[in-house]
Amino acid sequence: MTSSYPAALPLLIGIVAAAVTAFGLTGYGFSAIGTGGPGAVARGGAALAGALAAVAYAWGLVSLFLDESGTAQACQDANPSLYGHVSGYSVSYLPPALNCRMSSGGSYSAAVPGFLTPVMTGCAVIAVTLALIAVAEHRRTTTPEHSEKRTT
Question: Transmembrane stretches, by residue range (predicted)?
């Protein structure tokens, strides 16, 4: 989803949702690891990786929110030599990004730290991988190895 300027309400809703998600996943992750049992580390690790992805997302949204009134200033601060060629701005909420569009057709990033998108992506991949491992471990330990067939 892109728009020309960041809007305060979607940013605030996203920040609150990401913070609540991170808090919940952190609590679940530590309790899952603490309970032990089959797949506990994978379940807990998946939750903690998901929490880290949510924190990185919230950080990106906070960066956009703090910059909402100073979009031109963010573009100037990010690259003073190219600022004279800026013709507009585009905002993305997933992943959080503020792009300064130049009249020549290119663009450059501002306001949101560049490492957040790779961190979010990496943590999401790790979370999904660990969740799949936890599901496989759960199925392995709960499914009988030899199910008897009834003949009638």
Answer: 6-28, 40-59, 115-136
d(CA 151, CA 71): 74
Which pair of structure tokens corresponds to residue 75? 């573009």
| Annotated domain spans of the chain | 7-77
CB 40 within 8 A of CB 87: no
User: What residue spans of the chain are helical by DSSP H?
Assistant: 8-35, 40-66, 71-78, 116-142
Residue range 9-29: mean pLDDT, rounded: 94
- Give the separation between CA 23 and CA 137, rounded to whole angstroms: 26
* 37 Rama class: left (phi>0) / alpha (psi -120 to 50) / beta: left
The proportion of the chain whose per-residue pLDDT surpasses 90, expressed as a percent, equals: 45
